[in-house]
Design a protein that fits this description.
The chain has 80 residues and is mainly α. 60% of the residues lie in helices and 9% in strands. It is elongated.
């Protein structure tokens, strides 16, 4: 498991580490203190992944298309 700053991680790296954290917690072989640290790390990773997904959804929502459904560019998120 990496000790990299969560906010600097890509979505994919954060998801991989989150899966590792969940697996370790589910194994039941982790001492209580380590479980607490893993849970905190997992919560931070989850929040980071949610933020990255929300940012991606905003970008997708901004894509404009022509009458045939072809991407023509992007529109400001506020519709202006």
């Amino acid at each position: 498991m990496s000790e990299a700053a969560v906010e600097m991680m890509s979505f994919e790296d954060a998801m991989r580490e989150l899966e590792t954290v969940v697996g370790r917690l589910e194994s039941g072989d982790v001492p209580l203190e380590d479980s607490i640290k893993l849970y905190e790390r997992g919560a931070a990773l989850k929040a980071h992944c949610q933020k990255k997904l929300a940012e991606a959804e905003e970008k997708v929502a901004q894509i404009t298309t022509d009458g045939d459904g072809n991407a023509t560019g992007t529109a400001p998120l506020d519709g202006k």
